[in-house]
Amino acid sequence: MSKITTFIPGLQSQRSVAGAAYGPDDGSGGYFEWDPTKYDNVTEVYAEIVAYTDPTGCTPNQIPGVKWELYDVTNSTQIDEWQDTGTSYEVRRSTDVLGSMPASKATMRISWKKKCGTSATASATRLIIVQENPTKTRSFISIGGSTFTTSTIYANLGRDDKQWLWDASKFATIDEVHCHITFKSGTAGIQAAVKVDNLGETDSLTNFSSTITSYYFYKSLDVSGTITDGETYRTYIKISNAAAAAYIANCYIVVDLVDVSKFVTNLDIQCGGFFDGAAAYSEEAPYIATFDASTDYWDGVTKSIYHQACLYRVRATSGEAILFDDGAQIAISEVSSTSSTMEIQKSSALSEPADGSVIGASLKQTTGARGAYTQASYNIITYEIGEIETPSMQINIGDTWKSVEGVQVNIGDTWKTVSGMQINIGDTWKTIF
């Protein structure tokens, strides 16, 4: 049996919600798409948030904590809501909501609020999809953070400039590739535009413009025939009038796979503009994820795990990034850059952290001038799936799956050979009509 997990990141920046209602509800926290036709054999679905609450103002009989919801924007329906106690940054995962997910394609968001106190602040939201013996799935690659621009010519996203090197050798059996973007104009009637292009702006995958002032979820046509092996892609935005602004909440390259065998998927640890001027690492609590071992959400797959960061240094000799596992540095995960512009750096292969490990990211700068710092737009765990175990034929006996080897059936943990149109039960052949 094989088991894989898809992580769909929503929020791409640290956001606080002070009101009594769930927020953000305008799309600024990032929309994403649930399309059940792109997956099969889904066994679990979770809505996850990394958040804390400021308890200032809670009364003695109130217990501070965070509430969060999974919301179907297309059908204006709350899928479910949850609550958790505690005031520190924690990874908070919902119950399984597979049975409540829409039967057809829908735009979704994850929103949150305080239980009491001043505000609730989140640094990441994710939809987690678990499949067993999949023959089709999706991979989400984030290439754009949450920011805005007043530039009248296409500009990259600055400190939220996420980049991805398209390596065709890492994928097999691609069906389609799309770009998903949450985007808006800040002023009615003034045109904002967005595009996904390579670093030299010579290989545009898609472009979109709008004068709409509410966040809009845009999905490109299939670009699998135009995406170029070996090119590094990023997101660019512009506005037609410098007195206004164009806003973006997230942007992904989404890879649809059939006959699933070989692909790349990512778990965002830190997914918003992040900088640090310290000369030594200190774990950054807001940027964390809970790591699940292969026995929970990965099984029957050959995979390699890496830390990848998009970073650069400012007035420093170099900038470094590292991952923490339950507060301890993962030395082999360290990456560094001497570039003064954003670039991708990838670590050596990592050992798999233990089940339930809390993984955090940290930055530092080396021998910098006054005011030196390191800037990163993301820190991610990259899973490179090299092979997926081909499932055998199975039969369910007593709510337990038994593999069927060739033309045999397992009865009472004893193999019985199937002969032609007969089945052997109790060592007696029964004819199948």
Task: Give the SSE layout.
Elements: E1 3-9, E2 15-17, E3 32-34, E4 42-54, E5 65-72, E6 77-85, E7 90-93, E8 106-114, E9 119-132, E10 136-144, E11 147-149, E12 155-156, E13 164-165, E14 174-185, E15 192-198, E16 206-210, E17 216-219, E18 232-239, E19 246-258, E20 263-270, E21 274-276, E22 284-291, H1 294-297, E23 301-314, E24 318-325, E25 328-337, E26 343-346, E27 357-366, E28 373-388, E29 393-397, E30 400-404, E31 408-411, E32 414-417, E33 422-425, E34 428-431
List keywords for this structure.
433 residues, 2 domains, 1 helix, 34 strands, 1% helix
Q: Could you walk me through the main structural features you see in this protein, from its secondary elements to its overall organization?
A:
The chain has 2 domains: 3-388, no CATH class; 394-431, no CATH class. Helices cover 1% and strands 56% of the residues. It has one helix at residues 294-297, and strands spanning 3-9, 15-17, 32-34, 42-54, 65-72, 77-85, 90-93, 106-114, 119-132, 136-144, 147-149, 155-156, 164-165, 174-185, 192-198, 206-210, 216-219, 232-239, 246-258, 263-270, 274-276, 284-291, 301-314, 318-325, 328-337, 343-346, 357-366, 373-388, 393-397, 400-404, 408-411, 414-417, 422-425, 428-431. Strands 1, 2, 4, 7 and 9 form a 5-stranded antiparallel beta sheet that branches. It starts with a strand and ends with a strand. The model has no long low-confidence stretch (mean pLDDT 89).
